[in-house]
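@channel anyone free to eyeball this complex?
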Amino acid sequence: MITLDLKTERGWLRKLNPIFGAGFWVKAAVGLSIRDVLCRQLGVADDYLDNRVQTLFLDGKPVDDVDRAIVPDGGVLTLSAAMPGLVGATFRKGGHLAPMRGSITCAAEDETCELDGRVKIKLFNVVARELSPGFLGMGIIISGQPECQFFEGRSTKFWNGCQAAKLDGRNIDIEQLRELSFEFEEMGLTVIEDSAEASP
Amino acid sequence: MDKILRINTGADGGPSFTIDGLGDYAGHGGRGMTSSIIAKEVPPDCHPLGADNKLVIAPGLLSGSLAAMSGRISVGCKSPLTGGIKESNAGGQPSQMLGRLGYAAIVLEGQPSDDALYKVFINKDGVKIEADNGLKMLGNYDVVDKMKAEYGEKVGCISIGQAGEMKLAGASVAFSDMEQRPTRHAGRGGSGAVMGSKGIKVIVVDDTDCPARAPKNPDAFKEANKAFVQGLRKHPVTGEGLPTYGTNVLTNVISEAGAYPTNNFQKGSFDGASNISGETQAELEIERGGKGANTHGCHRGCVIRCSGTFYDKNGRFLTKQPEYETVWAHGGNCGIDDLDAIAQIDRLDDDFGLDTIEMGAAIAVAMEGGLAEFGDADAAINLVKEVGKGSPLGRILGSGSEVTGKVFGVERVPTVKGQAMPAYDPRAVMGIGVTYATTPMGADHTAGYAIATNILKVGGDVDPLKPEGQVELSRNLQIATAAIDATGMCLFIAFAILDQEDTFQALLDIINGFTGASMTGDDVTALGKQILDMERDFNARAGFTPKDDRLPAYMKSEALPPHNITFEVADDELDKVFNW
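replying in thread with the prediction:
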């Protein structure tokens, strides 16, 4: 897997919002609860998960109990802040209106079975802004050609703010990066923002 | 607000007017006012475009005051789209202006005997009505520009575009915003067609020299308003999510949940959601820059500021920041993931005076009927332009999704009582399906909002595995929403009052401080029930039966991917929603 390491000015990460929305992969021990995966392995603080992440999906199903929803290998975890609208409110974790979407709610489980695997993470809205520096600092995996090609042919404006880059561990000019064909099946991506705020 | 302006459009020699006291309608505002007048004065079996129907425009109870978020305005009539009673509301400036001028309602009555088109001017000195056939078949933007040139830069406009003049059932009534653009619309139900049937093109409102309405108890009002604003600002939705991303912040989440109607409700998740999400939209607007790009308020006194301005690739103003429902209707529902194309359609809708939800639904139905491919943005733009031109095809589309489905032989038509469903598939979120089915308004997501039923204590514990749980919630939400609609408060206050009991109390204190009343949560509930009873009674007299309180049959048999579920709430459960 090819790797791309970027050092950027603060705030540059928001340009990657489409990647956060479409999802990226991280390696993790799976077969464990959402809290175990996010807070014990991926650096998300417990109180952040409890209070800030008000809307959470596992494989597209709204989750009410982060301690009793088990993340499978290849599972997709989607994290969002509280949402507006009636339907937005129905998706809130353990919210008063949760019964309105009862038929698609993620079932609670008690059985865990730990094994190595990987998890797809999707980050929406303010949660993307707040958690992306932590995930990108640790490194993420972008999988699939369309996803990798997000970087291809981007304008100078896009790359502005990118201070240094390494491709497979070797320094590469930003201009060369602009010309690069990103026809990769998978790409490891690390981004360190200048004076990046610590992950919550 | 102690007077009602009645304009008889059928008077000999052209429209005449009277200014009356409130009479039996004292104490009503917003939806409470519109539904009271329609229920009492309009024969339920009349033709919606005939002389007996009335168009009622009513600011909320608190409009014109300094209460935050109080600038919504209601428009009511017998709907040409549903055949039932209709209340549709909007932001913009005219609500606050009419409140300051003292008008609790404007009622358009009768039917003109000729095809002349009229403009109405209202200021502190009175009312003037003049024929102005130079406005014929102009879009809302041109109409507002002409009124600005004639009456000055500070007026507010209530207008219709070509769709209203053509009396199309998808026509809206436009309200100008703080930048004097016709971007805020009472969209649902075809109220623009009723205004067109009365021969009134535009109502110009000028509140110069009119002070804000004074509260009965200024100190209590001021204190409550301060607490209310603080509550809105500290809440993560009203203080952060909405001001940062606008309502379109919902796109990613609803699609992820499998509840995002895609390609005319064929599936619940859209592959292109990320490209048209609020996050992407906000980033695009910031990158393009421009005044008020991301974000600003839609009316004076708004502190949530979830609206914005959409500039095109060349930095020219195109339209206001498209709302979630619009982005969905013209985006995912038509398979389109291009924000510039969606914004262009939004501009056309606003200019022609069309409900973006109904138009998006109609185009998606037409796409399914073979008129264009899903995802073809150019085709969608051209179809909307047909409406503006008034071509036969355009008139079909502008008449709404149900008519379009009949003309093009499409079975999958997502309507209730003839009105298109908004951006949430009821198979994935059955609770909202109950509201879509039973609200007197036709499929409407704002009829049962996320109001604080838990704080109002009208709810109770709900079993998520039983359909009666959905019914109970829908009932309580509809009751609370009807009451909030009467105040003129923006429904987005719902999130803060849902979660923060002190903010809900602050809202009651604002109402009490302003009116001198001593309203309690129980009174809010009683008001909501009273409004719903009136509306249900009107519909019953218009011929509606429980069979009209149903979702389209295909939603019970056609499973929605990715959860592959159907709508499972039984008919007899739906019939219990209004059993109080």
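from a first look: The longest strand of chain B covers residues 103-109.
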